[in-house]
Specification:
- The N and C termini lie far apart (45 Å).
- It is built from 13 helices and 13 strands.
- The chain has 301 residues and is an alpha/beta fold.
- It has helices spanning 13-26, 40-49, 65-69, 82-90, 104-113, 127-145, 160-166, 176-181, 197-200, 205-216, 231-238, 252-256, 272-279; strands spanning 6-10, 30-35, 54-60, 73-76, 95-98, 149-153, 168-172, 190-193, 221-224, 243-245, 264-266, 286-288, 298-299.
């Protein structure tokens, strides 16, 4: 394997989609080191079936040391992770490209710019992870000074001038490959996006179910599960009148990119407020992201 080849080191379905977008934008085949987490295999299979420029896909647990050591350019899904910090502290990649990791993308950009802490928001980090933070950050910024660090993102990153001064490039994308490749799907005009908020303790299950019920009370809806929802939560959702539980187990961005008519999408506040307007651009869809109410956050024209 050539050391100048790129490797995507990803651990979530959205990061996999980002790797597919990067490969398409750069017209390069990208091997995948994919962490064994929920929906990763299904998402990889879906992307490959759609023609993603993926090379060999290797599932892993822990750090894929051998693969990382064989490649000089890493596409990194989670720049905050303790595993990335450890790998950065030991190995010597020449180039780093950071893919989107949901809303953490913006916090990570602030960390690189020096306007925010190098730590995942709302997460108490372990001692080793904290100790490795300055080492990983310094080595990342050292590569930035050589213009070897890029954010490949669908998010509107602030501090671009500061990032540019540090040598960090920002390469935007709008899910061009995803939109062009997605097959048409008939899943109904009203969609509810599942959430891991009850799982994470950010919302009670009772309040979550009440919100879903309020949406379903206005008419039939299709429910797209979140990958980290508990079985108990899905069982409770399944019993709500007017609701059809989708069997699809890939990111909402992939499911909805094939929309051929306007959709009305209900969601709790999440990174989908950024990603779905891009995926659904030109469809006339509306995303309603106020919990429990139907006030539109914005349309997709």
């Amino acid at each position: 394997m050539s050391r100048d080849a790129v490797l995507a080191w990803v651990e979530s379905p959205l990061q996999l989609v980002g790797a597919a977008e990067w490969a398409a934008a750069h017209e390069r085949s990208v091997p995948i080191a994919g962490r064994l987490t929920t929906q990763m295999s299904e998402t990889a299979d879906e992307l490959i079936a759609l023609g993603a420029r993926f090379g060999h896909c290797e599932p892993y647990l822990g750090i894929p040391w051998k693969l990382l050591s064989q490649h000089d350019h890493w596409l990194v899904g989670d720049g905050f992770s303790g595993q990335f910090r450890l790998a950065m502290s030991i190995l010597r990649p020449t180039s780093l490209t950071f893919l989107d990791d949901g809303a953490n993308t913006l916090a990570f950009a602030r960390a690189l710019a020096g306007s925010g802490p190098y730590a995942r928001p709302g997460v108490e980090e372990g001692r080793v992870t904290t100790l490795l933070a300055p080492v990983a950050l310094e080595r990342t910024l050292r590569r930035a000074r050589a213009r070897r660090v890029t954010l490949f993102t669908a998010f509107d990153v602030a501090d671009r001038e500061r990032l540019d001064d540090l040598g960090v490039g920002v390469r935007p994308h709008r899910f061009e490959w995803t939109r062009a490749s997605a097959p048409a799907r008939e899943i109904g005009p009203r969609i509810v996006l599942g959430s891991a908020r009850p799982t994470d303790g950010r919302m009670t299950l009772a309040d979550f179910l009440a919100w879903v019920e309020s949406v379903a009370a206005a008419g039939p809806v299709t429910y797209l599960p979140h990958r980290r929802e508990s079985r108990a939560q899905l069982d409770a959702v399944r019993g709500i009148p007017n609701l059809s539980l989708s069997s699809l187990r890939v990111p909402a961005e992939l499911v909805l990119a094939g929309a051929r008519r306007p959709l009305e999408i209900f969601t709790l506040p999440s990174s989908t407020a950024t990603t779905l307007p891009l995926v659904l651009e030109g469809t006339g869809s509306v995303i309603r992201s106020t919990p429990g109410r139907s006030r539109a956050r914005g349309g997709v024209s």
